[in-house]
Structures are given as C-alpha cells and as structure tokens.
C-alpha cells in the first residue's frame, strides 16, 4: 500500500518533553485518527509532519519526498487545519481568501464559495471578529478548496458545536471517496469510531499503538472479575487495572486468549476506543495494582 506520510525514527527534544522514536505510515486514501491525552505530543508530531518545527533526528517523507528539496511542492498538496494558522486577523474572510488563493495553482473558487455558504461564513467580516469555531470553519474551507491530496487537521472539532462536528465528519468521510488521505487529531474518541480507518495513540511522546481500527478493536477487551480471580499470571496481561466494588476491571491487549479463559467468574467484554484510551491513561499509576 502506498504511504502518503512516512516517518522514520523521528525525535523532537524540547527542554521538558521528548517526542521519541516515532515511525509512522499513513496509507493513501485512508483516514487516520491521532489520539492521546493533553501534552502527549500530538501537535508537536503534526508540526514535524508540516515542517513547522524541525525534528531533532529521523526522517520524514510526504508523497515520497523530503522537505529539504520539495517543500513548496509538498505544501501545495496539503490542506492544513488548526486553530492558529497565521491568517491576518485584520483582514476580512474575502480578502484573506484572495491573499491565500494565488499560492495554490489548483485553487477552486467555486468549491471555496460552496463551503463558505455551507459554513455560513460572512465574506465581509474580519477574521478577528469571528468566533473560534468560525475561524476553524474558515481554515477548513481553505484547506478543502485547493484539491489537497493530504488533509491534516489538528483538533478540527474543538470550538465547534455538536451539529457542525457531525457535519464535518460527514464531509471528511465523503472526500475520502475522492482518494484523499486524512490525518486528524482529536480528544473525542467517538469521532474516530465514526470515520477513522487507522488509529494512532500517543502518550508521553511515544506511539503506544498505531494500527487499523478494526484490528485494534479485535485486539483489546475489557476484563472484569472478583478479586480472588486476580492471579499474578492474570495481572501480567492487564493494563490500567482498577479496583471496583465487585473486584477488578482492566483492559487487555490479549482479547483472543481471554475468550477461552476457564475461570467462569471472569467476564470479557468488547473494548471501545474510549475504553482503550481510558485504561492506557491509567497505566502508569495503576498497572497491576488494585490492593
Ligand atoms: N516550542 C516548545 N518549546 C518547549 N516545549 C514545547 C514546545 N511546544 C510544545 N512543547 C511541550 O511539548 C509537550 C507536548 O505538547 P503538544 O502540544 O505536542 O501536546 P498535545 O498532545 O498536542 O496536547 P493537547 O492535547 O493538550 O493539545 C508539552 O509538554 C508542551 O509543553
């Protein structure tokens, strides 16, 4: 499968934070969701992919090309949505669009106007007078109007009302039919349930898993049982163990093995993405200890 984005052993060192050894492939024509808690490194990773910050080490190829030689070519084919895109805030929607459009040889004015109407963006309002959600919509309308092959969205739904969030997901889902590739970061796992083909979960600067969504949902399960069933062997397979009134509750990445478990008191349930993210978040503090 052709990869639109290829990261190999990418690191980024800040004083108090490190993005560690990130290797990632985003297959052409797919939607990848990037999820992780606050401060996990999602925006840092996205900035590396956009060449807005230089990795400390490792290599990045977009459309099979490196930024050193092909920055302009690459950037023209990316639609980037985030909440501080460096637009001139004193310009109106219409003027800012006129400044941006010539940068893209494949700018599609008709498409921009149809998104502007759909998003109810007032042409003559200054950007600084738009709400956060409206600014995000403007950024989105720009990103979707120059026939970008790769669309990168950093928390595009933050600041958007639930109705528009849903509409946005439908738009993203729809444009995939036209062979585009999408990476978007979010805190809302239900959005990934709806549209993502692949999920990458990062925590503390490291990829914990990156795989096809269906594969992930098959790999993980939520395990519940009474305290007396919690053998040391069982603990080895549990992630984010939690004490409950009944006994324990945890995640496992060995769902298959638990399907055949002999202990009739242990319950095995399908895990949702929200479960997976929740239990991994608990991992550092509670792994293997409920006593
Ligand atoms: N320019 C910078 N200089 C120093 N540290 C930085 C810089 N940018 C980000 N960081 C740190 O890197 C860590 C990861 O930040 P990042 O914004 O990538 O996380 P995130 O996963 O996007 O978080 P959130 O979900 O809260 O937006 C944080 O601890 C942040 O303080």
TrEMBL record:
<keyword id="KW-0067">ATP-binding</keyword>
<dbReference type="Pfam" id="PF00005">
    <property type="entry name" value="ABC_tran"/>
</dbReference>
<dbReference type="InterPro" id="IPR027417">
    <property type="entry name" value="P-loop_NTPase"/>
</dbReference>
<keyword id="KW-0813">Transport</keyword>
<keyword id="KW-0547">Nucleotide-binding</keyword>
<feature type="domain" description="ABC transporter">
    <location>
        <begin position="5"/>
        <end position="229"/>
    </location>
</feature>
<protein>
    <submittedName>
        <fullName>Sodium ABC transporter ATP-binding protein</fullName>
    </submittedName>
</protein>
<dbReference type="GO" id="GO:0005524">
    <property type="term" value="F:ATP binding"/>
</dbReference>
<dbReference type="InterPro" id="IPR003593">
    <property type="entry name" value="AAA+_ATPase"/>
</dbReference>
<dbReference type="InterPro" id="IPR003439">
    <property type="entry name" value="ABC_transporter-like_ATP-bd"/>
</dbReference>
<dbReference type="GO" id="GO:0016887">
    <property type="term" value="F:ATP hydrolysis activity"/>
</dbReference>
<dbReference type="InterPro" id="IPR051782">
    <property type="entry name" value="ABC_Transporter_VariousFunc"/>
</dbReference>
